[in-house]
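quick one before i forget lol
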Amino acid sequence: MPPGITTLAADTPTLSAANTGFMLICTALVMLMTPALAFFYGGMVRVKSTLNMLMMSFISLGIVTILWVLYGFSVAFGTDSGGVVGWSGDYVGLSGIGITELWDGYTIPVYVFAAFQLMFAVLTPALISGALADRVKFTAWALFIALWVTIVYFPVAHWVWGAGGWLFEMGVIDFAGGTAVHINAGAAALGVILVIGKRVGFKKDPMRPHSLPLVMLGAGLLWFGWFGFNAGSWLGNDDGVGAVMFLNTQVATAAAMVAWLAYEKIRHGAFTTLGAASGAVAGLVAITPAGGSCSPLGAIAIGAVAGLLCAMAVGLKYKFGYDDSLDVVGVHLVGGVVGSLLVGFFATGGVQSDAKGLFYGGGLDQLGKQATGVFAVLAYSLIVSAVLAFALDKTMGMRVPEDDEVSGIDQVEHAETAYDFSGAGGGTGSRKAQPAAVAAHTAAGPAAAETKNTKVDA
Protein backbone atom coordinates (compact mmCIF):
# COMPACT_ATOMS: atom_id res chain seq x y z
CA MET A 1 0.00 0.00 0.00
CA PRO A 2 1.78 3.17 -1.13
CA PRO A 3 1.45 6.01 1.40
CA GLY A 4 1.17 9.67 0.61
CA ILE A 5 4.44 11.04 -0.81
CA THR A 6 5.78 14.50 -1.60
CA THR A 7 6.20 15.43 -5.26
CA LEU A 8 7.86 18.27 -7.14
CA ALA A 9 5.57 21.05 -8.33
CA ALA A 10 6.20 20.17 -11.97
CA ASP A 11 5.09 16.61 -11.30
CA THR A 12 1.98 17.46 -9.27
CA PRO A 13 -0.78 15.07 -10.31
CA THR A 14 -4.22 16.16 -11.41
CA LEU A 15 -7.53 14.50 -10.63
CA SER A 16 -8.11 11.38 -12.71
CA ALA A 17 -11.74 10.48 -13.20
CA ALA A 18 -10.71 6.98 -14.29
CA ASN A 19 -8.57 6.27 -11.23
CA THR A 20 -11.15 7.84 -8.93
CA GLY A 21 -13.91 5.68 -10.37
CA PHE A 22 -11.69 2.60 -10.18
CA MET A 23 -10.92 3.28 -6.52
CA LEU A 24 -14.58 3.85 -5.64
CA ILE A 25 -15.39 0.43 -7.13
CA CYS A 26 -12.50 -1.13 -5.20
CA THR A 27 -13.74 0.53 -2.02
CA ALA A 28 -17.19 -0.99 -2.51
CA LEU A 29 -15.60 -4.40 -3.11
CA VAL A 30 -13.64 -4.17 0.13
CA MET A 31 -16.79 -3.12 1.99
CA LEU A 32 -18.46 -6.29 0.66
CA MET A 33 -15.76 -8.39 2.30
CA THR A 34 -17.08 -7.72 5.82
CA PRO A 35 -20.60 -9.11 5.21
CA ALA A 36 -18.96 -11.86 3.12
CA LEU A 37 -16.85 -12.73 6.15
CA ALA A 38 -20.02 -12.75 8.23
CA PHE A 39 -21.53 -15.37 5.90
CA PHE A 40 -18.29 -17.39 5.90
CA TYR A 41 -18.06 -17.42 9.69
CA GLY A 42 -21.83 -17.68 10.15
CA GLY A 43 -21.98 -20.96 8.25
CA MET A 44 -19.10 -22.43 10.23
CA VAL A 45 -20.72 -22.09 13.65
CA ARG A 46 -23.51 -24.16 15.16
CA VAL A 47 -27.06 -23.10 14.39
CA LYS A 48 -27.59 -21.59 17.85
CA SER A 49 -24.74 -19.10 17.28
CA THR A 50 -25.41 -18.04 13.69
CA LEU A 51 -26.87 -14.59 14.28
CA ASN A 52 -24.30 -13.68 16.89
CA MET A 53 -21.53 -14.56 14.48
CA LEU A 54 -23.09 -12.43 11.75
CA MET A 55 -23.53 -9.52 14.15
CA MET A 56 -19.94 -9.67 15.39
CA SER A 57 -18.84 -8.73 11.88
CA PHE A 58 -21.65 -6.31 11.08
CA ILE A 59 -21.17 -4.22 14.21
CA SER A 60 -17.65 -3.42 13.03
CA LEU A 61 -19.16 -1.55 10.08
CA GLY A 62 -20.86 0.76 12.55
CA ILE A 63 -18.26 1.28 15.27
CA VAL A 64 -15.11 1.52 13.17
CA THR A 65 -16.66 3.82 10.59
CA ILE A 66 -17.48 6.41 13.24
CA LEU A 67 -14.09 6.18 14.95
CA TRP A 68 -12.27 6.38 11.62
CA VAL A 69 -13.94 9.66 10.78
CA LEU A 70 -13.44 11.10 14.27
CA TYR A 71 -9.75 10.31 14.67
CA GLY A 72 -8.71 6.99 13.11
CA PHE A 73 -7.68 8.37 9.73
CA SER A 74 -5.62 11.03 11.47
CA VAL A 75 -3.79 8.48 13.64
CA ALA A 76 -3.11 6.15 10.73
CA PHE A 77 -2.24 8.64 7.97
CA GLY A 78 -1.65 11.99 9.61
CA THR A 79 1.71 13.71 10.00
CA ASP A 80 4.17 11.27 11.53
CA SER A 81 5.24 11.45 15.14
CA GLY A 82 8.30 9.33 15.96
CA GLY A 83 7.42 6.67 13.41
CA VAL A 84 4.71 5.34 15.73
CA VAL A 85 1.52 7.34 15.13
CA GLY A 86 0.28 10.11 12.91
CA TRP A 87 -1.85 13.14 13.66
CA SER A 88 -3.22 15.95 11.52
CA GLY A 89 -5.86 18.40 12.66
CA ASP A 90 -7.39 18.60 9.19
CA TYR A 91 -8.08 14.87 9.31
CA VAL A 92 -9.93 14.98 12.63
CA GLY A 93 -13.55 14.55 11.69
CA LEU A 94 -12.34 14.81 8.09
CA SER A 95 -13.33 18.44 8.53
CA GLY A 96 -10.33 20.15 6.96
CA ILE A 97 -10.26 18.29 3.65
CA GLY A 98 -11.41 19.91 0.42
CA ILE A 99 -13.60 17.82 -1.84
CA THR A 100 -11.11 18.13 -4.72
CA GLU A 101 -7.98 17.83 -2.56
CA LEU A 102 -5.79 14.99 -3.82
CA TRP A 103 -3.96 12.39 -1.78
CA ASP A 104 -0.29 13.39 -1.99
CA GLY A 105 1.36 11.99 -5.10
CA TYR A 106 -1.79 10.40 -6.51
CA THR A 107 -4.66 11.27 -8.77
CA ILE A 108 -7.52 10.43 -6.40
CA PRO A 109 -9.19 12.67 -3.79
CA VAL A 110 -8.25 12.34 -0.13
CA TYR A 111 -11.86 11.42 0.58
CA VAL A 112 -11.57 8.40 -1.72
CA PHE A 113 -8.34 7.26 -0.10
CA ALA A 114 -9.88 7.71 3.36
CA ALA A 115 -12.95 5.68 2.36
CA PHE A 116 -10.82 2.90 0.86
CA GLN A 117 -8.65 2.65 3.97
CA LEU A 118 -11.75 2.76 6.16
CA MET A 119 -12.90 -0.55 4.72
CA PHE A 120 -9.60 -2.16 5.72
CA ALA A 121 -10.04 -0.84 9.24
CA VAL A 122 -13.59 -2.24 9.37
CA LEU A 123 -12.61 -5.70 8.16
CA THR A 124 -9.63 -6.29 10.46
CA PRO A 125 -11.41 -6.54 13.85
CA ALA A 126 -14.21 -8.52 12.19
CA LEU A 127 -11.58 -11.14 11.31
CA ILE A 128 -10.81 -11.58 15.02
CA SER A 129 -14.41 -12.50 15.81
CA GLY A 130 -14.16 -15.97 14.26
CA ALA A 131 -11.85 -17.12 17.04
CA LEU A 132 -14.36 -16.14 19.73
CA ALA A 133 -17.49 -17.87 18.47
CA ASP A 134 -20.25 -18.99 20.85
CA ARG A 135 -19.07 -17.36 24.06
CA VAL A 136 -18.51 -13.58 24.10
CA LYS A 137 -20.93 -10.91 25.33
CA PHE A 138 -21.94 -8.64 22.49
CA THR A 139 -21.48 -5.46 24.53
CA ALA A 140 -17.99 -6.57 25.57
CA TRP A 141 -17.14 -7.38 21.97
CA ALA A 142 -18.35 -3.97 20.76
CA LEU A 143 -16.23 -2.20 23.38
CA PHE A 144 -13.26 -4.41 22.52
CA ILE A 145 -13.53 -3.36 18.86
CA ALA A 146 -13.49 0.32 19.78
CA LEU A 147 -10.49 -0.03 22.07
CA TRP A 148 -8.60 -2.39 19.79
CA VAL A 149 -8.77 -0.31 16.63
CA THR A 150 -7.75 2.76 18.63
CA ILE A 151 -4.75 1.24 20.38
CA VAL A 152 -3.69 -1.42 17.89
CA TYR A 153 -5.01 -1.11 14.35
CA PHE A 154 -4.72 2.64 13.76
CA PRO A 155 -1.09 2.84 14.99
CA VAL A 156 -0.03 -0.36 13.20
CA ALA A 157 -1.53 0.92 9.94
CA HIS A 158 0.68 3.97 10.38
CA TRP A 159 3.77 1.81 11.02
CA VAL A 160 3.23 -0.10 7.81
CA TRP A 161 1.69 2.39 5.36
CA GLY A 162 1.92 5.88 6.79
CA ALA A 163 4.59 8.29 5.53
CA GLY A 164 7.22 8.21 8.30
CA GLY A 165 5.94 4.97 9.82
CA TRP A 166 8.92 3.02 11.14
CA LEU A 167 8.24 -0.20 9.24
CA PHE A 168 7.53 1.70 6.05
CA GLU A 169 10.75 3.68 6.39
CA MET A 170 12.66 0.46 7.06
CA GLY A 171 11.51 -0.88 3.70
CA VAL A 172 9.10 -3.60 4.84
CA ILE A 173 6.93 -4.61 1.88
CA ASP A 174 3.24 -5.11 2.64
CA PHE A 175 1.23 -4.42 -0.47
CA ALA A 176 -2.25 -4.73 1.01
CA GLY A 177 -2.18 -5.94 4.60
CA GLY A 178 -0.30 -9.11 5.44
CA THR A 179 1.04 -7.50 8.59
CA ALA A 180 -1.38 -4.66 9.30
CA VAL A 181 -4.51 -6.75 8.66
CA HIS A 182 -3.96 -10.50 8.85
CA ILE A 183 -1.06 -10.96 11.27
CA ASN A 184 -2.54 -8.16 13.34
CA ALA A 185 -5.97 -9.85 13.52
CA GLY A 186 -4.59 -13.38 13.94
CA ALA A 187 -2.27 -12.40 16.79
CA ALA A 188 -5.09 -10.46 18.46
CA ALA A 189 -7.35 -13.49 18.20
CA LEU A 190 -4.73 -15.66 19.88
CA GLY A 191 -4.22 -13.12 22.66
CA VAL A 192 -7.94 -12.90 23.41
CA ILE A 193 -8.69 -16.63 23.40
CA LEU A 194 -5.78 -17.31 25.74
CA VAL A 195 -7.51 -14.96 28.20
CA ILE A 196 -11.17 -15.93 27.85
CA GLY A 197 -10.66 -19.68 27.53
CA LYS A 198 -12.36 -22.48 25.66
CA ARG A 199 -15.97 -23.05 24.66
CA VAL A 200 -18.02 -25.36 26.83
CA GLY A 201 -17.49 -28.85 25.42
CA PHE A 202 -14.37 -28.04 23.41
CA LYS A 203 -12.75 -31.30 22.20
CA LYS A 204 -15.66 -33.23 23.73
CA ASP A 205 -18.87 -32.21 21.94
CA PRO A 206 -19.33 -32.07 18.17
CA MET A 207 -19.05 -28.48 16.89
CA ARG A 208 -19.52 -28.90 13.16
CA PRO A 209 -20.49 -26.14 10.70
CA HIS A 210 -24.26 -25.87 10.47
CA SER A 211 -24.35 -24.62 6.84
CA LEU A 212 -21.56 -25.45 4.42
CA PRO A 213 -23.40 -23.76 1.53
CA LEU A 214 -23.29 -20.53 3.57
CA VAL A 215 -19.55 -21.07 4.09
CA MET A 216 -18.99 -21.49 0.36
CA LEU A 217 -21.08 -18.40 -0.41
CA GLY A 218 -19.03 -16.36 2.03
CA ALA A 219 -15.75 -17.68 0.63
CA GLY A 220 -16.82 -16.88 -2.93
CA LEU A 221 -17.79 -13.34 -1.99
CA LEU A 222 -14.53 -12.89 -0.11
CA TRP A 223 -12.59 -14.02 -3.18
CA PHE A 224 -14.55 -11.54 -5.31
CA GLY A 225 -14.09 -8.66 -2.90
CA TRP A 226 -10.41 -9.42 -2.46
CA PHE A 227 -9.67 -8.19 -5.99
CA GLY A 228 -10.63 -4.72 -4.80
CA PHE A 229 -8.69 -5.24 -1.58
CA ASN A 230 -5.49 -6.16 -3.42
CA ALA A 231 -5.59 -4.54 -6.86
CA GLY A 232 -6.96 -1.31 -5.43
CA SER A 233 -4.09 -0.97 -3.00
CA TRP A 234 -1.90 0.60 -5.68
CA LEU A 235 -4.35 3.53 -5.64
CA GLY A 236 -4.58 3.75 -9.39
CA ASN A 237 -4.47 1.90 -12.65
CA ASP A 238 -1.85 3.72 -14.71
CA ASP A 239 1.30 1.58 -14.65
CA GLY A 240 0.15 -2.05 -14.60
CA VAL A 241 1.17 -2.88 -11.02
CA GLY A 242 -2.46 -3.26 -9.98
CA ALA A 243 -3.00 -5.64 -12.90
CA VAL A 244 -0.10 -7.81 -11.72
CA MET A 245 -1.60 -7.86 -8.24
CA PHE A 246 -5.01 -8.77 -9.64
CA LEU A 247 -3.63 -11.76 -11.54
CA ASN A 248 -1.43 -12.91 -8.66
CA THR A 249 -4.43 -12.79 -6.33
CA GLN A 250 -6.27 -15.28 -8.54
CA VAL A 251 -3.22 -17.49 -9.09
CA ALA A 252 -2.16 -17.79 -5.45
CA THR A 253 -5.72 -18.42 -4.27
CA ALA A 254 -6.16 -21.24 -6.75
CA ALA A 255 -2.81 -22.80 -5.76
CA ALA A 256 -3.62 -22.62 -2.06
CA MET A 257 -7.02 -24.22 -2.51
CA VAL A 258 -5.55 -27.11 -4.51
CA ALA A 259 -2.73 -27.60 -1.98
CA TRP A 260 -5.15 -27.62 0.97
CA LEU A 261 -7.41 -30.16 -0.74
CA ALA A 262 -4.44 -32.38 -1.64
CA TYR A 263 -3.32 -32.33 2.00
CA GLU A 264 -6.84 -33.19 3.13
CA LYS A 265 -7.10 -36.09 0.75
CA ILE A 266 -3.76 -37.53 1.84
CA ARG A 267 -4.28 -36.84 5.54
CA HIS A 268 -8.02 -37.46 5.95
CA GLY A 269 -9.10 -39.27 2.78
CA ALA A 270 -11.58 -36.72 1.40
CA PHE A 271 -11.85 -33.42 -0.44
CA THR A 272 -14.14 -31.28 1.72
CA THR A 273 -16.04 -28.12 0.85
CA LEU A 274 -14.82 -26.55 4.09
CA GLY A 275 -11.26 -27.36 3.02
CA ALA A 276 -11.79 -25.75 -0.38
CA ALA A 277 -13.18 -22.59 1.19
CA SER A 278 -10.48 -22.41 3.88
CA GLY A 279 -7.71 -23.09 1.37
CA ALA A 280 -8.92 -20.28 -0.85
CA VAL A 281 -8.95 -17.85 2.07
CA ALA A 282 -5.43 -18.97 3.07
CA GLY A 283 -4.20 -18.16 -0.43
CA LEU A 284 -5.89 -14.77 -0.40
CA VAL A 285 -4.27 -13.97 2.93
CA ALA A 286 -0.78 -15.03 1.84
CA ILE A 287 -0.70 -13.17 -1.46
CA THR A 288 -1.96 -9.94 0.12
CA PRO A 289 1.47 -8.69 1.24
CA ALA A 290 3.44 -10.35 -1.57
CA GLY A 291 1.47 -10.10 -4.81
CA GLY A 292 2.82 -6.73 -5.90
CA SER A 293 6.44 -7.85 -5.68
CA CYS A 294 6.38 -11.36 -7.19
CA SER A 295 5.74 -13.00 -10.55
CA PRO A 296 2.77 -15.27 -11.29
CA LEU A 297 5.06 -18.28 -10.85
CA GLY A 298 6.07 -16.91 -7.47
CA ALA A 299 2.38 -16.46 -6.64
CA ILE A 300 1.77 -20.14 -7.35
CA ALA A 301 4.57 -21.07 -4.96
CA ILE A 302 3.38 -18.66 -2.26
CA GLY A 303 -0.19 -19.93 -2.53
CA ALA A 304 0.82 -23.60 -2.45
CA VAL A 305 3.06 -23.16 0.58
CA ALA A 306 0.38 -21.18 2.42
CA GLY A 307 -2.34 -23.72 1.60
CA LEU A 308 -0.22 -26.58 2.90
CA LEU A 309 1.04 -24.87 6.05
CA CYS A 310 -2.33 -23.38 7.00
CA ALA A 311 -4.01 -26.77 6.53
CA MET A 312 -1.47 -28.24 8.92
CA ALA A 313 -1.72 -25.32 11.35
CA VAL A 314 -5.47 -25.49 11.98
CA GLY A 315 -5.00 -28.75 13.88
CA LEU A 316 -2.55 -27.22 16.34
CA LYS A 317 -5.40 -25.93 18.51
CA TYR A 318 -6.25 -29.51 19.48
CA LYS A 319 -2.63 -30.29 20.25
CA PHE A 320 -1.96 -27.19 22.33
CA GLY A 321 -5.47 -26.72 23.74
CA TYR A 322 -6.35 -23.18 22.64
CA ASP A 323 -9.88 -22.82 21.28
CA ASP A 324 -9.54 -20.93 17.99
CA SER A 325 -13.16 -21.58 17.05
CA LEU A 326 -13.05 -20.87 13.30
CA ASP A 327 -9.28 -21.10 12.65
CA VAL A 328 -8.42 -17.41 12.60
CA VAL A 329 -4.97 -18.18 14.00
CA GLY A 330 -4.40 -21.12 11.66
CA VAL A 331 -5.43 -19.23 8.52
CA HIS A 332 -4.92 -15.49 9.06
CA LEU A 333 -1.95 -15.45 11.41
CA VAL A 334 -0.09 -18.32 9.74
CA GLY A 335 -1.08 -17.23 6.23
CA GLY A 336 -0.04 -13.66 6.92
CA VAL A 337 3.32 -14.75 8.31
CA VAL A 338 3.95 -17.06 5.34
CA GLY A 339 3.05 -14.46 2.74
CA SER A 340 5.02 -11.67 4.42
CA LEU A 341 8.16 -13.75 4.88
CA LEU A 342 8.06 -15.20 1.38
CA VAL A 343 8.41 -11.69 -0.02
CA GLY A 344 12.01 -12.08 1.15
CA PHE A 345 12.37 -15.04 -1.22
CA PHE A 346 10.18 -14.21 -4.23
CA ALA A 347 10.41 -10.42 -4.69
CA THR A 348 11.58 -9.91 -8.27
CA GLY A 349 12.68 -6.29 -7.94
CA GLY A 350 10.76 -5.40 -11.09
CA VAL A 351 7.18 -4.63 -10.07
CA GLN A 352 6.26 -2.90 -6.81
CA SER A 353 9.81 -1.90 -5.83
CA ASP A 354 13.41 -2.64 -6.72
CA ALA A 355 13.90 -4.81 -3.63
CA LYS A 356 14.86 -8.37 -4.56
CA GLY A 357 14.30 -11.55 -2.62
CA LEU A 358 16.77 -14.35 -2.00
CA PHE A 359 15.76 -16.32 -5.10
CA TYR A 360 16.38 -13.28 -7.31
CA GLY A 361 19.83 -12.37 -6.08
CA GLY A 362 18.80 -10.06 -3.28
CA GLY A 363 20.42 -11.92 -0.43
CA LEU A 364 18.89 -11.96 3.04
CA ASP A 365 18.39 -8.21 3.43
CA GLN A 366 14.71 -8.06 2.44
CA LEU A 367 13.92 -11.25 4.35
CA GLY A 368 15.35 -9.63 7.49
CA LYS A 369 13.16 -6.57 7.00
CA GLN A 370 10.09 -8.73 6.46
CA ALA A 371 10.82 -10.75 9.60
CA THR A 372 11.14 -7.55 11.61
CA GLY A 373 7.74 -6.38 10.42
CA VAL A 374 6.12 -9.76 11.02
CA PHE A 375 7.30 -10.25 14.57
CA ALA A 376 6.91 -6.61 15.63
CA VAL A 377 3.24 -6.56 14.64
CA LEU A 378 2.65 -10.07 15.99
CA ALA A 379 4.12 -9.31 19.40
CA TYR A 380 2.48 -5.91 19.77
CA SER A 381 -0.98 -7.11 18.77
CA LEU A 382 -0.78 -10.32 20.82
CA ILE A 383 0.26 -8.58 24.03
CA VAL A 384 -1.99 -5.53 23.81
CA SER A 385 -5.01 -7.60 22.76
CA ALA A 386 -4.53 -9.97 25.67
CA VAL A 387 -4.27 -7.03 28.08
CA LEU A 388 -7.43 -5.46 26.68
CA ALA A 389 -9.32 -8.76 26.97
CA PHE A 390 -8.09 -9.26 30.52
CA ALA A 391 -9.16 -5.75 31.54
CA LEU A 392 -12.61 -6.16 30.02
CA ASP A 393 -13.03 -9.61 31.52
CA LYS A 394 -12.20 -8.33 35.00
CA THR A 395 -14.46 -5.29 34.77
CA MET A 396 -17.57 -6.17 32.76
CA GLY A 397 -16.93 -9.81 31.92
CA MET A 398 -16.12 -10.98 28.39
CA ARG A 399 -18.06 -14.24 28.41
CA VAL A 400 -21.73 -15.06 28.64
CA PRO A 401 -22.69 -17.39 31.53
CA GLU A 402 -22.14 -21.08 30.86
CA ASP A 403 -25.87 -21.87 30.83
CA ASP A 404 -26.46 -19.17 28.22
CA GLU A 405 -23.62 -20.49 26.10
CA VAL A 406 -25.07 -23.98 26.17
CA SER A 407 -28.63 -22.89 25.46
CA GLY A 408 -27.61 -20.58 22.63
CA ILE A 409 -26.03 -17.17 22.44
CA ASP A 410 -28.41 -15.97 19.71
CA GLN A 411 -31.42 -15.99 21.99
CA VAL A 412 -29.54 -14.56 24.95
CA GLU A 413 -27.76 -11.70 23.18
CA HIS A 414 -30.11 -10.93 20.29
CA ALA A 415 -33.54 -12.37 21.24
CA GLU A 416 -33.72 -14.03 17.84
CA THR A 417 -32.92 -17.29 16.09
CA ALA A 418 -31.44 -17.71 12.62
CA TYR A 419 -34.05 -20.16 11.39
CA ASP A 420 -37.75 -20.31 12.26
CA PHE A 421 -39.25 -23.76 11.77
CA SER A 422 -42.48 -23.03 13.64
CA GLY A 423 -44.49 -23.02 10.42
CA ALA A 424 -42.91 -26.12 8.91
CA GLY A 425 -45.00 -29.21 8.40
CA GLY A 426 -48.51 -29.47 9.79
CA GLY A 427 -50.82 -31.25 12.20
CA THR A 428 -49.46 -33.12 15.16
CA GLY A 429 -46.35 -34.08 13.20
CA SER A 430 -44.92 -30.57 13.10
CA ARG A 431 -41.69 -29.73 14.84
CA LYS A 432 -43.57 -27.80 17.52
CA ALA A 433 -45.18 -31.06 18.63
CA GLN A 434 -41.97 -33.07 18.62
CA PRO A 435 -39.76 -33.70 21.62
CA ALA A 436 -37.20 -30.92 22.08
CA ALA A 437 -34.19 -33.12 21.34
CA VAL A 438 -35.69 -34.38 18.08
CA ALA A 439 -36.77 -30.92 16.98
CA ALA A 440 -33.33 -29.49 17.69
CA HIS A 441 -31.66 -32.32 15.82
CA THR A 442 -33.78 -31.95 12.70
CA ALA A 443 -33.47 -28.16 12.76
CA ALA A 444 -29.70 -28.29 12.97
CA GLY A 445 -29.33 -30.90 10.22
CA PRO A 446 -27.69 -34.32 10.21
CA ALA A 447 -24.21 -32.85 10.59
CA ALA A 448 -25.18 -31.52 13.99
CA ALA A 449 -25.22 -34.86 15.75
CA GLU A 450 -22.12 -36.98 15.94
CA THR A 451 -22.97 -39.57 18.55
CA LYS A 452 -25.47 -42.43 18.33
CA ASN A 453 -27.41 -41.26 21.38
CA THR A 454 -29.63 -38.22 21.69
CA LYS A 455 -26.89 -35.65 22.30
CA VAL A 456 -27.68 -32.58 20.24
CA ASP A 457 -25.13 -30.20 18.71
CA ALA A 458 -27.33 -27.21 18.10
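fyi The CA atoms of residues 7 and 105 lie 6 Å apart.
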